[in-house]
Amino acid sequence: MKKIVTVSTLALLLAGCNPGDQQADDTTKTEQKSDETTQSKDETKKEDTAKDTNKEETNKTDKTDETTKDDTSEGAKQEDKSSEDKSSDETTQEDQGSSDEATKDETEKKEDTPAAENKTEDKKDESTDKPDSSSQDPEQEKPSKPEDETPDVDKSADAKADLSLGMLVVVNKKYSLPIDYKPSDLVVPNVNFSYSGVLEQSYMRAPAAKQMEKMFAAAKKEGVTLNAVSGFRSGARQKVLYNNYVARDGKAAADQYSARPGHSEHQTGLTFDISAPSVGNGLTAALGDTKEGKWIANNAAKFGFIVRYDRGFQSRTGYTYEPWHIRYVGVDVATQIKNNGQTLEEYMKVGH
């Protein structure tokens, strides 16, 4: 080995090179190489660092994008939900609006149909199961034991009442007045009434009203209190009352105490229903058994009145006992009818 080193040194010397310089040069080269290596490593490290930085930024960007995407998705979801809620609210409002509109239409329909209301009101007046409860024409009680009528009652053969007979005109189930007939001499008699004010039923023909005033005054002197209840009644009003009774009791029963339109004596203006406080001013058969009822039966003829449908006369008049129903025929005729125990039909020799 020593020989080889010596030879190398010698060779260098011959070449004109100093072995120290060569060594220094080698050292320099080694250092340069080391520096280059270090620089390369540094550059590589920088590049790696840059890559890591870029990667982190890329990851941040990706995360930001994902976050943005999530936010956008969440916003879209909320917007969709809001749209759905809005749509639901709009649908509900539309449904509510439709319902309100339908209700409004129904209300307007009811308000805009006076004809239907009038028809319903007429039906109520004509077909209700209870008579008018106002003071006008108080409810007439249903008779408990109706009597049989005679075959002489022919409801199918209507005849016109003879108005030329004046105070003796006969109006019953067979003889009728024109539905719109109304006497021209109606007045309100100066007597006590069972109600206040003046109604259609407060009137009576003048000659009859004058005599009724005398009768009420005579009764008062004898301590008998009478009250007027119902006088003139138009054909239209009679129609309402009759239909009410039919609805309440049936036609067969109503025909025993209520007249068909045009067949009521009240329309003549010669009839008045009277009662007394002792029976609540009611139109009841019980009146006949009271002091007032008995006074009427015994004294009415003195003033030209008869108890038109007396006790036990149904088979001869077609109507049940009505102690409250008085009819003006004049003093002479009334006295004769009473004394003979007749009905107006029998006196006038006509059917009922």
Helix content: 40-55%
On the 0 to 100 scale, the average pLDDT is 75
Give start-end ranges of low-pLDDT stretches: 1-7, 9-38, 58-134, 149-153
Largest sheet: 4 strands, antiparallel
Secondary structure tally: strands = 8
Radius of gyration: 60 Å
Q: Structural class of the helix and strand makeup? A: alpha+beta
User: DSSP strand (E) fraction?
Assistant: 5-15%
State the helix count.
10
Alpha carbon gap, first and last residue: 179 Å
**What is the 3D form?**
globular
User: Could you spell the SSE succession in H and E letters?
Assistant: HHHEEEEHEHHEHEHEHH
Largest sheet, order of strands side by side?
A: 5-6-8-7
What's the gist of this structure?
This protein has 352 residues and is α+β, with helices and mostly antiparallel strands. The protein has helices at 2-14, 19-111, 114-127, 206-221, 235-249, 251-254, 291-299, 314-317, 331-340, 344-348; strands at 159-160, 175-176, 186-187, 204-205, 227-230, 271-275, 305-309, 322-328. A four-stranded antiparallel beta sheet has the order 5-6-8-7. The protein has a two-stranded parallel ribbon with strand order 1-2. Strands 3-4 form a two-stranded antiparallel sheet.
Essential attributes:
single chain; 352 residues; four-stranded antiparallel β-sheet; 8 strands; disordered N terminus
General description of the model:
With 352 residues, this protein is of the alpha+beta class. Helix content is 52%, strand content 8%. The chain is built from 10 helices and 8 strands. It has helices at 2-14, 19-111, 114-127, 206-221, 235-249, 251-254, 291-299, 314-317, 331-340, 344-348, and strands spanning 159-160, 175-176, 186-187, 204-205, 227-230, 271-275, 305-309, 322-328. The strands form 3 sheets. It has a 4-stranded antiparallel beta sheet with strand order 5-6-8-7. It is globular and about 45 Å long. The termini are far apart. 28% of the residues are buried.
